[in-house]
Amino acid sequence: MKTILFVEDESALQKTFGDILKQEGYEIIPALDGETGLRLAKERKPDLILLDLILPKIHGFEVLKRLKADVETKDTPVIIMTNLEGVEDVDKAIELGATTYLVKANYSLEEVMEKVKKALGE
Amino acid sequence: MNLKKILSQFNIRAQCKKYDLSLWQCPQFLFLVMGIIIVIAAVSTYLIGNRYIADPQAVALIVLLLTVILFIIAFIIIQGFERLGEANRMKSEFVSIVSHQLRSPLSNLGWAIELLMSGRLGKIEEKQTEYFRILKENNARMKELVSDLLTVSRIETAKLPLDKKETSLENIIRGMVREFEHFAKASNVKIEVKVQENLPKIFIDPSQIRLVIENLLDNAVRYIKEEGKVEIRLEKTDNYCRFEIKDTGVGVPKKDQKYIFQKFFRSGNVLRYQTQGSGLGLYIAKSIVEKSGGRIWFKSEEGKGSTFFFTLPLN
Question: d(Cα B257, Cα A53) in Å, to the nearest integer?
Answer without folding.
Answer: 43
